[in-house]
Amino acid sequence: MPFKPSPKSAPLAKLRVVLDTNVLVSGSLVGGGPSGRILQAARHKEFQVLVCPAIIAEYREVMARPHIRRKYPLTTHVTPAVMEFLEVIAEMVFPTHIESVIADDPDDDILLACAVEGRASFIVSGDSHLKALGRCRGVKIVTPREFVSRFLSNSPP
Question: I want to staple 49 with a disulfide (CB 3.0 to 4.6 A). Which of 25, 76, 90, 92 is the partner?
Answer without folding.
Answer: 90
